[in-house]
Amino acid sequence: LMYIAIAGNIGSGKSSLTGLLSERYQLRPVYEAVDENPYLQDFYQDMPRWSFHSQIFFLGKRLKQHLEEINHAPHVVQDRTVFEDAAIFARNLYLAGLMPERDWVTYQGLYQGIVAALRRPDLLVYIRASVPTLRERISRRGRSYEKAIPDEYLEALNRLYQEWISSYTLSPLFVIEGDQRDFVEDPEARRGILADLEALGLQVPMY
User: Fold this and answer.
1) Residues designated as active site
2) Could you give the strand order of the β-sheet that contains 173-177, starting from the edge strand earlier in sequence?
3) Reported pTM
4) How far apart are CA 38 and CA 194, in angstroms?
């Protein structure tokens, strides 16, 4: 059995890595429902008003994915987890004053009420990238509403990611330094990362 979770900030390359690992290791891909979120464009234009709506949508979607596509799948790779949604994205909105305490408490209650029923990853792959790298990759993929994301927002998420990763204990952890290893554009970087992952136990293909 193998459940690989891909973690990282906006634009770090999670979806690309999810597709790469899915194809190479015959893992079922589970992608983040970004384009399905009806609140996301409104959220980036008015975060205090739409933060709770957007986060609750993502929470519901990820819980549904987990229960239906991950908990019982033998071989699966997931593009962002519910664990980092709660620890980083929702928490950042609360700490920044963009989500009222009442909404934060409600969100936490929903999350804590079901998290014990969720499968833990067998391996977490974290893509660490600086804001200039994130900006370049956000520009490359061309989602108009993402281009207006403030650098301060990305920096705050990076700080919370680092805090989360430094105390992460749910599974083994593999960190990709995204500033140096552009696995999307650089075939050599891609081969190196795959070799590192295979040294950790991934096999081609995994049946």
Assistant:
1) 79
2) 28-30, 75-79, 2-8, 123-128, 173-177
3) 0.91
4) 35
